[in-house]
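Input record (one chain):
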Amino acid sequence: MEFELTPEIEERIAESLPEWVIRRPELRRRLQHALAGTPANRMTFEEFLDWVEEDIRAEWVDGEVIIMSPVSLRHQQLSDWLTAILLAFVETEGLGTVLSAPIQMRLQESSREPDLVFVAQKNAHRLKKTYVDGPADLVIEIVSPESVGRDRGEKYQEYEAAGIPEYWLIDPAREQAEMYLLDQKGRYQLQRVDEEHHYHARQLPGFWLDPTWLWQDPLPKILDVLRELAVI
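The corresponding structure, as predicted from the sequence alone:
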């Protein structure tokens, strides 16, 4: 029996969902299918790009759309802090391009939205108008309670399989930073800090990070960090 989205049901939905969901015909259509117990139509990657907007955090996996929860204030502060530092370093050294979410990164069977990506100058051809076409050289994910399974599971496996050379997993709740590099067999290997407790990024020659900076509240001043890195 086909489900009908009556005005009464639509009104109840409107009362319980954010306005940005209700005003999206595609999301309303998917909700209708879900309530009816029938599968929603799959999207091609091109349809996904046409559909997704900056106010929607979403990823495309095997033709299906995954809507992600808004990030926390701490998550956003940490993302902005890392973006500012990496952007200044990369631009000064002329290494490539740093991008922060929302930016889509298309892999073989998915399009993910990492928190930060670095694309080396040699791979600048992968930068398209609205997405990165292929693996970035460095991907950073800031773990949140709702993303821990994806970041440590699905994305870890996808990034490894895609040949992303360097993957950082930053977990503010656990105060844990994990930096992985691909080995010669194409498997991620967890890296260690040096005797000064610095992690040296393989894809960013000359860049190092003290992971303890990430847990400070407030975060270290950006200009102080750039001085430590001899950027200024």
